[in-house]
Design a protein that fits this description.
- The protein is an alpha+beta fold and 265 residues long.
- 35% of the residues lie in helices and 28% in strands.
- The chain has helices at residues 24-40, 61-64, 88-95, 98-104, 107-110, 130-135, 150-170, 204-212, 214-227, 256-259, and strands at 11-19, 44-49, 56-59, 79-85, 111-120, 139-147, 176-182, 185-189, 195-201, 228-236.
- The strands form 2 sheets. The chain has a 5-stranded antiparallel β-sheet. Strands 3-10-6-9-7 form a 5-stranded antiparallel β-sheet.
- The longest helix is centred in the middle third of the chain and has 21 residues, at 150-170.
């Protein structure tokens, strides 16, 4: 039994960023402007978090924080952005826009590393808001994977989807699975993401019930450990932002004022 995409399933954009320490505020502006352009192109910003001290690393800490100079971390990001578009045409229209072109001119100045990958979703995307996080899902469980072997990881994502369907019976909680699949498109590839899984959870206890269940620990983990390098991290669905930016400083022709009404930064 497999999880079939919903009729209104959308495509997700996963962005990983590592900011230059000496350009922290400029890097935040860069990500903020990217959010504005995404919304202006019809996309939705589901989650944006740039406070790693609020993240809970469940697995793969050595891939997040460098254990030593001989083993550099491969997923040492400090900002994660998850957005949704209705289809790939909308993604590529956004990516090819003059606004993104102008924004990306400044990328190397403010970012040490950056990746943007697209993933086929299983459900419709959503606009992340404080109200939504208060009343609904509060946590995002994200797995990003670099494969060593393709076939075991294909079994992994197929099994992941199958177990998500059975979650209400197995753990007594819904697994709101957004995606579990190999990357469908690469826009920038400075973090080696090849497979990604993401699910939303109402409570930490529900999330832990899923992660600690025998099906996950005895079936999924061995596949992952033997065939991939992975970072598994729990992220807040909503994160308060204190930074404010003047939208009139944005380049390009987007009517930024209209887009900013949905932001609370």
């Amino acid at each position: 039994m497999a999880w079939e995409p919903a009729g209104d399933a959308e495509h997700f954009l996963l962005g990983l960023f590592k900011k230059r320490p000496d350009r922290h505020r400029d890097a935040l502006r860069f990500i903020y402007e990217m959010e504005v352009i995404i919304r202006g192109a019809g996309g939705k910003v589901c989650v944006r978090t740039d406070k790693p001290d609020l993240w809970d690393i469940m697995d793969g800490r050595d891939h997040f924080a460098e254990p030593n100079h001989l083993n550099p971390a491969i997923f040492d990001c400090d900002t994660i952005l998850l957005a949704g578009f209705k289809d790939l045409e909308e993604v590529h229209s956004w990516w090819a826009s003059d606004e993104v072109f102008e924004l990306m001119k400044n990328r190397d100045v403010v970012m040490e590393k950056m990746s943007l990958h697209t993933i086929d979703g299983l459900v419709s995307s959503f606009e992340g808001t404080k109200k939504r996080a208060t009343l609904g899902d509060k946590l995002l469980l994200l797995e990003i994977v670099q494969m060593d072997s393709f076939k075991p990881m294909q079994r992994y994502v197929d099994s992941y989807k199958s177990k998500a369907i059975k979650a209400p019976k197995d753990i007594g909680a819904m697994c709101n699975l957004l995606f579990a699949e190999g990357i469908s498109g690469v826009l920038i590839n400075e973090f080696p993401v090849q497979v990604a899984c993401a699910s939303c959870w109402r409570t930490r206890s529900d999330l832990l019930s899923w992660y600690e269940a025998p099906g996950y620990q005895k079936e999924l983990l061995p596949l992952r450990y033997s065939s991939a390098r992975c970072l598994t991290v729990v992220l807040p669905m909503w994160e308060e932002k204190k930074e404010t930016f003047d939208a009139t400083r944005r380049r390009g022709s987007v009517a930024a004022g209209l887009k900013l009404r949905s932001l609370n930064i």
